[in-house]
Every structure is written in structure tokens, then in C-alpha cells.
Amino acid sequence: MRTTPLLALAALTLTAACSDSGTAAGAPGTTPGTSTSSAAATTSAAATTSATTSATTSASSTPKAPTSPAAQIPAGAGTATTVDLDGDGKPDTLWLADVGGKRELGVATTSHGGSVVEFSSAAPQSATASAAVLASGAPTVFLNTGRSVQLYVYRVENPGLVEVKGVTGQPYSFSLGFTDYGTGLTCTDGRLYGENATADAADRFTVTRTEVTVSAEHAVAENGAKTTVGTGLAADDPAVRAARGATCGDVPDSAVAKEPA
């Protein structure tokens, strides 16, 4: 069973309204925890920071011997077959599970073992996860906790999931309309965009987007140019609906891992 933390930590949300420095006040998001990779590798560590409370914790990797993908996935986990994350030409597996009261996001690859990160969120919804290989070449995992979408990249060197940071070192996430900084994300031809749909007094919408470039090597996301998609749009306009997305383009439901209720 999923539990809701007593203390709501919030991640800085970086979306279409983010500053050039890649920082902005954000919606309650995810708080990363310990990261464990099952591939044989040297120990790697990533610093993680939860915003608004300015609480800082350290994430660490503890490598284990590679195992088969099926052996890495906890019993009862929500799983989905996803894109090739480790570059061996074969599809990999995303999973979400509650293990000993801890919420976990994991990947099981066909050639490089598995990797797990812990997360928490103040949102009452069960989480979902999807993935895409972006135009930059970054294998990117999108963790949707209901109010925001946190980014992770999969790196083959010291194999594992790594939390993506903004250029200032804060966790990078997209608001899903719970702040004034954005309403979602989308992808076009492998290019990732933070989207923001705002309504005027007549309930007509303006949609803007900011391209976001993700580096797998450095696990960093950087905002690019902001553009206007459309103005005076109806609520059911495809551009408005796309601006409320939580996956990288149209991802089939079968490719979305769902956290057990």
C-alpha cells in the first residue's frame, strides 16, 4: 500500500516560465532518496536537494552483481515495457513499487542490470512512469507524481538512474498546473518542451513552450528559447490539451508503469 508522507517536501519546478538560470519557485514535487544500481560498477553518488524547505540529503549508489531483469523487480510492482535505455537495441522495463513503506522507481535493463531510486510526494495520487530517448540522445525517465513530473536519466557508465538537475544544481521538474509556472510537458520529434496554458477572462487560452535540453552525461537540463504556440485557443484545442501532458508525446498506456494503489 502506498503511504503519504507526514512532511510535504517540494521540488523546484522548472517549466516554460523558468528563468534563464533554470530556477523558479515550484509546485510540490518529488523528494529523491537512496539510489541503488544492481550492475557491477564503481560507487557513484548524486547530491539531491528538496526546495522550499531547503532540506538537503545525499543520494548514493550501492552496486550489486548484475541479475536477470525479472529478478530485480519486486513482487507486486507495476511494470511496463519501455524504450531501449541502455543502448543494446532491446526494450527495457520500468517499474514502480512500495517496498517496506518506501516508494521506489526502478528500471530493469537487458544488458546492464537494474537501478532503483526512492521518492516521496505530497500528492495523493499514485505515481506513473514513462520514458523516451530524446533528440539529444539522453534516455530520460519521467516520474509523474500527480502535481509535477521529475526527470531522471539512465547512464550506462556506472549504470543507473540519475536525477536530473537544473543549471543551478536544483532538481528539475515540470509543474502540472499546480503553480503559475507551467501546466505540463510534451515532445516533438524527440525535443522536450515545458508547456504553459493560461486562460483569459473569456476562457480563451494562450499556450507557450520552452525547449529543454537534457544532457545524459551531466544529468543536467537547460532551458532554451520560449515561444508562443497559439493565442485565443478554445479549451479543447489540441495545443491546449498537449500543454497539459505528462509524458514525452503520445506514449501508449502499455508503456506507462503504474504504482500499485
TrEMBL record:
Keywords: Signal. The keyword Ribosomal protein does not apply. Residues 20-71 have a biased composition (Low complexity). InterPro entries: Integrin_alpha_N. PROSITE patterns: PROKAR_LIPOPROTEIN (PS51257). Residues 1-24 form the signal peptide. Residues 20-87 are annotated as: Disordered. It comes from the Bacteria. This is VCBS repeat protein. It comes from Kineococcus rhizosphaerae.
